[in-house]
Structure formats: structure tokens, C-alpha cells
Design a protein that fits this description.
304 residues; Rossmann fold; 9 helices; 43% helix
């Protein structure tokens, strides 16, 4: 699987979640190579790879997917996580700074996502195995981002793109989903979670806290699983298996075959068809996080 923007924060958590369950991961970074190397070194299992690429360019996106396919032997899951998020409040930003901010956000957040999705899709269609694309959007796409309007706008566009791709790609056995996290406790925003501002941010949630990266990563992992997307009649059956057991067996615990996994074949670094109950709390966390993210009923601030 390939996750963009995996040097730290949510991208790192997503890479860790997939690697912990037997998948081989292509860890992408833009400029933070040292952080990305730390992510790669911490991943369990073997066969992972590190790839640097500038997603603001068409060549960078193409090279990323091609290198991931070559290193992993194929890509069945793409998680579009890379994003630019810099402040540019309209009342205090010059026109030159305003246009620069918009161009940077659109280039990576929207166009980079579109480029990677197309490249991964063509690979999935050509190999005939289906696949999964999960886009990391933002609750800010729906609540507004007064100090980061380009971020909110491009994330709204990512959600719209995901809806279009989901309909277009279903006949090929490719499922597309998006998550809209609220505020996440990551390196990028850690400074905002202290003092009065931090208290105000946490107060926006009825739970009185912000999300942890692992909680959102659990939802992403579940959305890429066989249970999340039943096979469409006539579409290719996904071909993922894992070298490690997955977790969503019902109580009472015991191994079983995952629903929808009939016809799966073995393939290195791909999602598993065996789900066991040894880590049921993870499965419940994934389902809970997924429900919260998809329904979007809780008033939570968007990550900045």
C-alpha cells in the first residue's frame, strides 16, 4: 500500500496501522526525509520502502506511484494524506501571499490527490485486482477555515473528487472512501493545544478532547478492508492477503474467514482475508472512529 505524506502525524499513524497488520508500505515524504526515515525504521515487518516526491508536479506524482509499484510489486491501496496547510487570513494577507498560498494548496491538496488517484487507478485496472483509495479530507471542508480558506476549499474539493471517483471506479472493483477528521493531536498543531487556545479547541467536542492519530488511522484501515466494501456483482475480486492476522471477528472470539473474502488469492504485502479476535479492541476502535468521521455530527475543529 502507498500512503502519501507519511513522514509524521496522521500519515505515520496510517503507515504503522497497515504495517502492523502485515501490509508492505510505501512511505512517501515531500521534504522531511529524516522524519520519514524514522517512520520507516519503526514499521513492523519487512519489505517497506521510502520514496521522496514533489506532489505539486505531475512528474513527481508519476514517479511516486511508479516507484511504489516497482518496490512493492504492485499497489492495491492508496491513502491520499499529503497536504499543505499554511495560514493566510484574508484580511491580513497581501495579494501576492494570497495567490501563492492558493497555488500551493491547490497543487498538493487537490491536484496531487487527483494525480495519484488516477495513476493508482490505472495500475489497479490494468492488474485486474481491484483496490481501495482512501482520501484524508477535513471537517474544515464543512465548517469553514477562516484563517486557512484554501485548505478548507481544497479539502472540500477532495471530498467531491472522492464521490465522483467512487461512482466511476466501482465497476472495476475499486472502492473510494473519504474521512473528514476534526482536530488531531499532531506535531503540526501541538503548539495550539496548550493554554487557553487548547482548552477552547477541546471544548468544541462533547468529549472534551481532540483525536489521536491512531484513532483516525484505525478508521482508514477499516475503510480499506474487505468488510467495508462488499464486492460488486461482476467486478474483479480484490486480491489482498496479509502475513499477519486481522482483527474483526465477532464475539465470542475465534478465527473466521472475513465476509466478502471468497476468491481472494495470496499476494505479498496486501490486505488479509483471515480476521481473528486477538485484538478486538482495535476493531472496535476502527468502527467507532469510522462512524464518528463519516457521520460528522460532533462539533470538532478542523486540524490546522
Amino acid at each position: 500500500m502507498l500512503v502519501s505524506g507519511a513522514s509524521r502525524g496522521l500519515g505515520r499513524a496510517v503507515a504503522e496501522a497497515f504495517a502492523a497488520h502485515g501490509d508492505r508500505v510505501a512511505v512517501h515524504y515531500g521534504t522531511r526525509r529524516a522524519d520519514a526515515e524514522a517512520t520507516l525504521a519503526a514499521l513492523p515487518g519487512t519489505g517497506h520502502t521510502l520514496i521522496g516526491a514533489d506532489l505539486a508536479t505531475t512528474d513527481g506524482a508519476r514517479e511516486l506511484v511508479w516507484e511504489a509499484v516497482a518496490a512493492l510489486g504492485g499497489v492495491d491501496v492508496l491513502v491520499n494524506n499529503a497536504a499543505v496547510n499554511t495560514p493566510h487570513p484574508p484580511a491580513d494577507t497581501s495579494y501576492a501571499e494570497w495567490t501563492e498560498a492558493w497555488q500551493a494548496h491547490v497543487a498538493v491538496n487537490l491536484l496531487g490527490t487527483a494525480y495519484l488517484s488516477h495513476l493508482a487507478t490505472r495500475h489497479m485496472i490494468d492488474q485486474g485486482t481491484g483496490g481501495r483509495i482512501v482520501n484524508i479530507g477535513s471537517h474544515g471542508a464543512f465548517r469553514g477555515e477562516p484563517d486557512h480558506p484554501a485548505y478548507g476549499a481544497t479539502k472540500a474539493a477532495v471530498h467531491a473528487l472522492g464521490q465522483s471517483l467512487a461512482v466511476a471506479l466501482a465497476p472495476y472493483g475499486i472502492a473510494v472512501a473519504s474521512v473528514a477528521p476534526g482536530f488531531i493531536d499532531t506535531h503540526r498543531v501541538a503548539h495550539r493545544l496548550t493554554g487557553a487556545e487548547g482548552e477552547a479547541i477541546r471544548a468544541q467536542s462533547p468529549f472534551g478532547r481532540v483525536a489521536e492519530p491512531a484513532e483516525v488511522a484505525a478508521a482508514v484501515l477499516w475503510l480499506a478492508s474487505p468488510e467495508a466494501h462488499p464486492k460488486r456483482s461482476g467486478a474483479p475480486a480484490p486480491s489482498w492477503t496479509s502475513t499477519a492476522p486481522r482483527t474483526c471477528a465477532p464475539d465470542p472470539p475465534g478465527p473466521r474467514q472475513a465476509r466478502g473474502s471468497a476468491g481472494f488469492r495470496a499476494g505479498p504485502g496486501r490486505l488479509g482475508e483471515r480476521w481473528t479476535a486477538h485484538s478486538q479492541p482495535f476493531c472496535r476502535a476502527a468502527r467507532t472512529a469510522s462512524m464518528r468521521l463519516r457521520v460528522r455530527v460532533l462539533p470538532m475543529a478542523a486540524e490546522r
